[in-house]
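Lecture 7 notes: from sequence to structure.

We start with a single chain of 178 residues. Read the sequence below before looking at the structure.
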Amino acid sequence: MAATPYETQAIYNLQRYLRQLSRFDPDIPSVDEDGIFGEETRASLLAFQRKYGLPVTGSADPETWARLFQEYLASVEAYTRPAPVYLFPRFPTDYSVGRGDENLLVGVIQYLLREITILYGRDTAELPLDGVFGELTERAVRDFQAVNRLPADGRVDRITWNALARNIEMRANEYRKE
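Now the structure, written as tokens:
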């Protein structure tokens, strides 16, 4: 007997929840999200029920559904990457920041430059974190641009911003290795 569309959607949801949990818990076997309640899905559900002290029936009764959804939400919350913050304007497309500008974005650029230029063996103690794009900030931007083979004009446009973002991501990966 074929499953109704509602049953198929419920099975997809069940498989998605189990799959999420299996990514971070070796006790729960992974499942394919195919909308078919087969042996693979049943085995994963049984493992989930055993692990969480539920009646081990292999069927998704209301108690199992409630606990599975609760654990799924907790897992998503625990393992989802932090939300990104987009600071660089999308428009106008030729937007750039340079000498004389004073704003939060300049302060963020200064912070990023301090973090990144340490990797290049440069002393960044003199670079202020004041949100004012002055001579020292311009020099640090030019140095960064030169090291990254970008036009060294001392202004932060979208290309320089994206290079800063890539470099800070590499720096963040170093922290995760520790």
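The two ends are 54 Å apart (CA to CA). Keep this in mind for problem set 3.
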